[in-house]
Amino acid sequence: MTASNLPSRTRIAIIGAGPAGMMLGHLLRQEGVDCLVLERRDRAYVEGRVRAGVIEQTTVEIMQRVGLAGRLLREGLPHGGFSISWNGELIHIDVAGLTGKHITVYGQQEIMHDLFDAAPARGLDVVFGAEDVTLHDIEGDRPFVTWRSGGETRRIDCEFIAGCDGFHGVSRASIPSGRLVDYEKIYPFGWLGVLADVPPCAPEVVYASHERGFALASMRSATRSRYYVQVGAEDRLEDWPDDRFWSELAIRLGETIAAGLERAPAIETAMAPLRSYVCEPMRFGRLLLAGDAAHIVPPTGAKGLNLAASDALFLSEALTDYCRTGSMAGVDGYSGRALSRVWKAERFSWWFTHLTHRFPTATPIERKLQIAEMAYLSRSRAAQTALAENYAGLPLSP
Ligand code: APR
Ligand code: PHB
Fold first, then answer.
1. Per annotation, catalytic residue among 106, 187, 228, 391
2. Is 90 exceeded by the pLDDT of residue 148?
């Protein structure tokens, strides 16, 4: 939208047009609530970021609720399970058989494309290139947001601000220190991810736990694959030329899976640290946080996007109720409701990371316990059910 037709007030100002902000915007518009999204970058940048692509059924239902699940259901790949490659064997986790649920492989980029494409027709205004976004009076009753666009300073008054601007955003940083409690764990390794136009080496996602480290084989379509290997926390992209990446990936995936591995030049390569993080509560006055602005999971299990989606749903319900009735009950309950699901996904992502990665810091007894846990999982239907239930996504209500 152009600066000239920007309103001077809206009910909800949303900071950040990632999955959390855009889903929240669509959910609010669906209920007829006025809102405006302010995004620092341009659309191509946000849409181009390659992220995980395993979508829980609850996230599909959120896309359905806003009428945007058509392409996801047509082009997404429904998967009934996944495998763990370990010690020369493949442990198959039959998610559908154990839980009755399946997951859908559909990249975050595609979700973003669908959310952005539909925005104008739904009356969801997104300001891209909003510089120096600043939050004001979040502790008072009349919050407002200022930003710069095209050299001019703009302002929008609102009733609530939704901080959906990711881990490094301005929203959480606007809360005075000491008013939130942070919980954080930084893992002693990272992931190197490669996107390549080759058919996937296996029909379902494969997590590999190998002596040399973790690896993951995933996909985006029948012709596009997404692969990852665990790398040292200090490693740089230059340390991992193509040949090293593909050879290491093949070793870690194990012979059976590697037999189907095709190599190709990378379309995209990225290195990311692994972190678990939660801030409590997810609210400060009239600022409500959602998605990565409030919590981060390590990518093992692909919960980041799905948590952003459930936060957006909970927050949209709270704000819609407030906008319709003036009641603060939903807003007051938002943080507790969201955190209950967040902590369970944090626990799962932390556990799955511990199960599958090689920790350079592990003591001999920790390594032995890790091996015993995998051996147990490989034979126990009960353990596989617990894994499958979390992988498919826990229910929205506790
Ligand atoms: N002002 C405006 N926008 C900002 C600011 C700012 N100061 N800082 C960050 N943003 C924008 C970013 O450019 C980004 O587009 O906020 C958006 C936040 O998006 P994400 O980081 O994707 O966070 P979220 O929407 O919570 O989604 C979490 O997406 O990126 C993945 O791995 C992540 O799967 C997880 C999910
Ligand atoms: C991915 O497809 O990028 C992906 C899949 C599963 C994960 C993480 C990432 O656990």
1. 391
2. yes
